[in-house]
Write a structure and sequence with these properties.
Layout (H helix, E strand, L loop, with lengths): L19 H10 L4 E5 L4 E4 L1 H7 L3 H4 L15 H10 L5 E9 L5 E12 L5 E10 L1 H23 L3 E5 L5 E4 L2 H6 L3 H4 L13 H14 L2 E9 L5 E11 L6 E8 L1 H23 L3 E5 L5 E4 L1 H7 L3 H4 L4 H6 L5 E3 L11 E8 L5 E12 L5 E10 L1 H15 L9 H13 L6 E7 L2 H8 L1 H18 L5 E6 L2 E6 L4 H14 L4 E3 L2 E3 L3 E7 L5 H17 L5 E3 L2 H22 L3 E10 L5 E12 L3 E3 L1 H11 L2 H21 L8 E6 L1 H4 L4 H11 L7 E6 H6 L1 H13 L3 E7 L16 E4 L1 H6 L4 H16 L3 E4 L5 H10 L3 E2 L10 H7 L11
Parallel strand pairs: 22-23, 25-27, 27-28, 28-29, 29-30, 30-31, 31-32
Antiparallel strand pairs: 1-2, 1-5, 3-4, 4-5, 6-7, 6-10, 8-9, 9-10, 11-12, 11-16, 13-14, 14-15, 15-16, 17-19, 17-22, 18-19, 20-21, 24-25, 24-32, 25-26
Helix pairs in contact: 15-16, 19-20
This protein binds ligand C2E and calcium ion (CA) (2 copies).
């Protein structure tokens, strides 16, 4: 092998030996170290590059055995190979040896050696080309270093790094594999990466992988990876195409994000819960950003507004709600200022053309740091509620039958009128005169019709500014503002005349008149004015129907007297100045005393005897009725026991006690009576409770219930003054009556008036038909008694036999125990 054949550069093809000079020059100048040695392995020639490599001059090197140039770290393998070559056993060799370089440093070299032969083919020596490997070795060392470094990093890294080939088979996995997923490297190596991916994530993973393989670069996806225990981990994987680099693979970095995914899922779940709540909320929810733009509205909100989400988002709440004609109908109730909640109502022009009332409750939203981050408004459509409220308010202030203002509204208007500085305010009490009779005769429907008609006429005859109200029953009230007495009289007259024409009711005509009491303000309270008008109205009635009476000094004196009488009565009751007298009730068949009616008597210290009708009315006026009745009940029970014991009254005779309407509404009444009656040594059957027809009609349902309960306890129950009230006979059926008392007015007319006789006859017949005892009141003449007996009346009381007497007199005269003569 020639130097040329050994790869030395050549410009011409001539053999080396043909031009020794030229060969020499090339041999010396080449940068590749070269040497020749003889068959003993002793250097015969070296070029300059070789000298530089081993840092010795050529003169010193020639004659040195090759092996003497070895570094002490050399294994000696190369020497053995060279010896074999020189023995002719091989023709060439490639071997590494470590030479001793400058400063004794080891220089690794690659030696290509060839055996040189003479013309006869006998070995002559060897030529060697030496390649300095130290720079290559340096690179190799650096690579090793980097690998170690990378390994160290990989070992310490929490992220998992894997390298796959283009087909996705795992070529390498960093040690994190074991810590993170529990696999040993050998378990997974050469497995397809997709084997470890959740089946739902495989398509996306493979698609991403294919893209990275095809187009290079890197992509990141989220996928689920199964660990050795079969548990799924959420991973974020970044795959980078490093196929064309020294790595020669796809490097995938995986990070376990299970916790993050779970947290995000929890957040999403709670968000969707809130959204579900928001979407199903009854109220509209409206979130605005700090700059006022709407950023969220729930479905209820857009429904309320009648707009689309797109029409609302981006605009401000004020813009959508309050623009144009829309007005805030209620003042804000918040404390004001930024960051505080406020509640208000707005009238909203709904796109459907109908106005809505929206209640808006706005409160600031805080961000995590407590700074204001927009606001949340809760909006509800309160149109219907408000309408209902208005209706209720109207209903609360108006009479349902006539639609006129009721007592409450009238009082309010009156109070308001009195605060105004006008000429004066007039209150007019209008009471229909014959209404009860018509109502009774033609039925309630006709009565209602009549009241509606009256309301309309009063309303139209009053001035526009006047308030016409219905006070209940057949009472109306008119309030006139800014009037003097002359004006007020004129209005009252108009009211009265408006009723002159007959009314059309229930197919027929009805005539009505009214009594009007007028009171004019000077400095009175509303209550005083009303009571003055009431007093005036009674005075008008007493004076004869269809009249106007203006409250004046005379009436004031009367009212004053009434008031004084009330306070005197209160004192008299406390001082026990009242007495009970007893009038016998006589059996018309036998003349025996069936019972005695207790009647209160009051002799005023200054004015002398006060008629019971009068002081009973005053007692009712001033709220003493219940006290009076309780007093009478208790005393009557005691007197009766005493009278019976003394045989001043038959042992089986009952005692009748009058109870007024006010007392009936006293909730503790039944227990109280029962207890007192028994305490006095009587039984309920010994007591007859007398209630007037009108008292029952004040609150018929309640009265019927109470009387029923009293009856159930064994008390006798009587309807007093029967025939004077305005009720029909129908309610008799509902009442658990034991006694019916025919009013004195019928009895008085019995002999002269055939129709009174007919009425009395039918009442008696009816009472007997339902098994109720009939007692006639106020029998003064023997003829009346005779007549009554003839009609089948059971019993009677009257001056014909005895007036009411004091118990002391009953003891003395036997007025309650003797047998009366009823034969004549
Ligand atoms: P009343 O319950 O209808 O009582 C019968 C009235 O007729 C009594 O009048 C009695 O004195 C009177 N009287 C009896 N016989 C005759 C007669 O032959 N001719 C005439 N003209 N009258 C006769 P008095 O005592 O003046 O009582 C009037 C009303 O006062 C009673 O009417 C009753 O409603 C009420 N009253 C009396 N005492 C009480 C009481 O203690 N409590 C209650 N709530 N009311 C009472
Ligand atoms: Ca009575
Ligand atoms: Ca009576």
């Amino acid at each position: 092998m020639t130097p040329d054949e050994a790869g030395l550069g050549t410009d011409d093809a001539r053999p080396l030996e043909t031009d020794p000079t030229r060969f020499r020059r090339r041999f010396d100048q080449t940068s590749m170290p070269q040497s020749f040695c003889d068959l003993d392995g002793v250097l015969t020639e070296v070029n300059d590059a070789y000298c530089r490599l081993v840092d010795r001059p050529g003169s010193e090197l020639v004659g040195m055995p090759v092996r003497s140039l070895n570094h002490r770290s050399d294994s000696g393998d190369a020497d053995a190979h060279l010896a074999a070559l020189l023995r002719g056993e091989i023709d060439s060799l490639q071997t590494e040896r470590i030479l001793c370089g400058p400063a004794g440093r080891p220089v690794p070299v690659l030696v290509d050696a060839a055996l040189l032969r003479d013309e006869d083919g006998r070995p002559l020596g060897a030529a060697a080309f030496v390649q300095d490997l130290s720079s290559l070795r340096g690179l190799e060392r650096r690579r090793q270093q980097q690998e170690d470094f990378f390994l160290a990093l990989a070992q310490r890294a929490s992220d998992l790094a894997i390298v796959t080939d283009a087909e996705g088979r795992l070529l390498y996995a960093s040690p994190a594999l074991t810590g993170m997923l529990g696999y040993a490297t050998e378990d997974v190596i050469y497995s397809p990466g997709a084997d470890f991916v959740h089946e739902d994530d495989v398509p996306e993973t493979l698609a991403m992988f294919a893209r990275v393989v095809a187009h290079g670069g890197a992509e990141t996806i989220t996928l689920r990876v199964r660990d050795a225990a079969g548990v799924w981990h959420w991973m974020e994987e970044t795959a980078s195409n490093l196929l064309d680099t020294a790595v020669g693979g796809i490097v995938c970095n995986l990070r376990d994000i299970t916790d993050r995914v779970r947290a995000e899922a929890a957040l999403r779940a709670s968000e969707s819960r809130y959204r579900a709540i928001a979407d199903n909320a009854e109220e509209g929810l409206w979130v605005t950003a700090p700059d006022g733009r709407s950023v969220y509205v729930n479905s209820r909100m857009v429904e309320i507004l009648g707009l689309t989400e797109g029409q609302v988002l981006g605009r401000s709440l004020i813009d959508v709600l309050h623009s144009g004609q829309r007005r805030v109908t209620r003042t804000r109730t918040g404390t004001g200022g930024p960051g505080t909640s406020e509640r208000y109502e707005v009238t909203y022009d709904h796109p459907d053309g109908r106005e809505r009332i929206l209640s808006v409750s706005e409160s600031p939203l805080d961000d995590a740091d407590g700074a204001i981050d927009g606001s949340l408004a809760m909006v509800s459509d309160i149109t219907d509620a408000r309408r209902l409220e208005d209706e209720l308010r109207r209903a609360a202030l108006h009479d349902t039958l006539t639609g006129l203002p009721n007592r409450a509204l009238l009082l309010d208007r009156l109070q308001h009128a009195l605060t105004l500085q006008t000429r004066g305010t007039a209150v007019m009490f209008v009471d229909l005169d014959r209404f009860k009779i018509i109502n009774d005769a033609r039925g309630h429907a006709a009565g209602d019709e009549l009241l509606i008609g009256v309301a309309a006429r009063l309303r139209s005859s009053a001035r526009a500014a006047d308030t016409v109200a219905r006070f209940g029953g057949d009472e109306f009230l008119v309030v006139c503002e800014d009037v003097d007495e002359h004006d007020a009289r004129a209005v009252a007259l108009d009211l009265l005349q408006s009723l002159d024409q007959p009314f059309q009711v229930a197919g027929g005509e009805a005539m009505l008149s009214a009594s009007i009491g007028v009171a004019l303000s000077s400095s009175e309270s509303a209550d005083a004015l009303l009571s003055h008008a009431d007093t005036a109205m009674y005075a008008a009635k007493v004076a004869g129907r269809s009249r106007i009476r203006v409250f004046d000094a005379a009436l004031a004196a009367q009212a004053e007297e009434r008031f004084e009488l009330g306070s005197d009565l209160r004192r008299a009751l406390l001082a026990n100045e009242l007495e009970l007298h007893y009038q016998p009730v006589i059996d018309l068949a036998t003349g025996q005393v069936l019972g005695a009616e207790a009647l209160a008597r009051w002799t005023h210290r200054l004015h002398g005897p006060v008629p019971p009708d009068r002081f009973v009315a005053v007692a009712e006026d001033v709220g003493l009725a219940a006290r009076l009745d309780r007093w009478a009940l208790r005393l009557a029970a005691h007197d009766t026991t005493a009278l019976r014991r003394a045989a001043a009254m038959p042992a089986d005779a009952y005692v009748a006690v009058n109870v007024s309407a006010r007392t009936l509404s006293d909730p503790g009444l039944e227990d109280w009576i029962t207890w007192n009656v028994e305490a006095a040594g009587l039984t309920p059957a010994d007591v007859l409770i007398e209630v007037t027809e009108s008292a029952i009609m004040t609150d018929a349902t309640y009265a019927v219930a109470l009387l029923t309960r009293l009856r159930q306890r064994g008390f006798g129950v009587a309807v007093d003054d029967f025939g004077t009230g305005h009720s029909s006979l129908a309610y008799l059926r509902d009442l658990p009556l034991t006694v019916l008392k025919i009013d004195r007015s019928f009895v008085a007319e019995l002999t002269d008036d055939a129709s009174a006789r007919a009425i009395a006859a039918s009442i008696i017949e009816l009472a007997r038909a339902v098994g109720v005892t009939v007692v006639a009141e106020g029998v003064e003449k023997a003829a009346d008694a005779e007549l009554l007996r003839g009609l089948g009346c059971d019993a009677a009381q009257g001056w014909l036999w005895s007036p009411a007497v004091h118990p002391a007199e009953a003891h003395r005269s036997g007025a309650l125990s003797r047998t009366y003569d009823v034969s004549a």
